[in-house]
Amino acid sequence: MFSDKEEFKEAFKAKLETKLGKKAEEATERDAYKALGALVQERISRNWVKTNQDYRTNKNKQVYYFSMEFLMGRLLGNNLLNLKMLSLVEEGLDDLGLNLTNLEEKEHDAGLGNGGLGRLAACFLDSLASLELAGHGYGIRYRYGMFEQHIIDGQQVELPDHWLSQDFIWEVRRPEEAVEVRFGGNVEAVKNESGPLHFEYKNYEQVQAVPYDVPIAGYNNDTVNTLRLWSAEPIVENTLRKAEIENNSASFLDYKQELESISSFLYPDDSTDEGKRLRLKQEYFLVSAGVQSVIRSFER
């Protein structure tokens, strides 16, 4: 925390220099947003580490909220409010000729939810952290969210909502925590004469679920829980092997895009059988990755 706005201003100007290589008078509003976000993230991360350590030490029972949607909204203002830094930061930025509202506008709405279901899930996460309860969220890191609506010649035109075109400053990629999700294939029973019956899972399709963690800070306390978002990424060796078997180098890109589509859109078009299968794959992908992660955490 900052003791006063002067301390904040010095820390903010230092962050502009160390992170972006700019003086305050040279910085754009986008630069200022990034620097402020990094500063806030640093404050949150200290409590994030401490919260996770306390959960491990105290062996707290933990709640995991699985949802296909998390309508989080813009996190800069919410985090400043929860850290009780909102007024101090607003005044400090004003002294530097910057407007906090304008900086908040530089943050894209995270394309992770739409409507009541997603907002309810986000409210649960806020409440769990604010009540100092060990509760986390599991969702999918949709690359394009819902869609952007444009009206052209009186008709609605839907375009991808590329919300990740700019860095999502709150997320932390954790490839070391990735898990493997398998689809399809077949199971064969194998019985050895001297041993018990066992089963072999073969001919399945593999995709890597890579987690991106977002800290969820509680209001006026030191609790920081986690929203873990899963991204579907191909396992390169398997994708190359498939292309080699099919003797078709072009199939590498096709197969790669097919696997990545699992975490591409919040709501795929389910008017076709292909769209229905993709939606089912998304649901299974989330549950499989999430349960594997929970069990791994529990065993640790």
What does this structure look like?
With 300 residues, this protein is of the alpha+beta class. It has a single domain (5-299), classed as 3-Layer(aba) Sandwich (Rossmann fold). The chain is built from nine helices and ten strands. It has helices at residues 5-20, 29-58, 75-82, 86-95, 100-104, 116-130, 236-245, 250-260, 273-299; strands spanning 63-66, 135-140, 148-152, 155-159, 172-173, 179-183, 186-191, 197-202, 205-217, 224-233. Strands 1, 2, 5, 6, 9 and 10 form a six-stranded mixed beta sheet that branches. A two-stranded antiparallel ribbon has the order 3-4. A two-stranded antiparallel sheet has the order 7-8. Strand 7 (186-191) and strand 8 (197-202) form a beta hairpin. It starts with a helix and ends with a helix. The model has no long low-confidence stretch (mean pLDDT 90).
